[in-house]
Amino acid sequence: MTALRRSRDRGQVTIEFLGMTPTILVTLVVLWQLVLVGYTFTLAGNAADEAVRAATAAAPGARQGACREAGLDKLSGAWAEGATVNCATGGGFVTADVTLSVPLLFPGTIGFPLEVKGHAGAVEEEVD
């Protein structure tokens, strides 16, 4: 009876695996996209930190240029393409805002319709 049952069940695992393959692939694609979103958040925060650090050390007239350059410096091409970096000064405080586009599946191809913002602030350095 066991041999007869095994012969009837032959191929069942293959059929079940083929049925689950689309679910497995969709799950992997969704997880990869979530990794890209998280990585973009990390990049935006780091770029804002770098931008505000450079802006506080620069002279008031050169802040925006130093801010933008430092904010884009460590971003790879895929994230730097659509990035915006803005610095503002007010009340002895310097802030930097960085906006990055999230790539869709492969960095450098199509952008996901989601923008990630990074914000950082620091006290303005005194000039002697």
Short description:
It contains 4 helices and 3 strands; from the N terminus they run ααααβββ.
Care to describe what's here?
- The longest helix is centred in the first third of the chain and has 46 residues, at 12-57.
- The chain has a three-stranded antiparallel β-sheet with strand order 1-2-3.
- By secondary structure, it is α+β, with helices and mostly antiparallel strands.
- The protein has helices at residues 2-9, 12-57, 63-73, 77-80, and strands at residues 84-90, 93-103, 111-123.
- The protein contains four helices and three strands.
- The model has no long low-confidence stretch (mean pLDDT 84).
- The relative contact order is 0.16.
- The termini are far apart.
- The radius of gyration is 25 Å and the shape is rod-shaped.
- Strand 1 and strand 2 form a beta hairpin.
Helix tally?
4
Mean pLDDT: 84
Largest sheet: 3 strands, antiparallel
Can you list the strand order of the major beta sheet? Answer: 1-2-3
Cα-atom radius of gyration = 25 Å
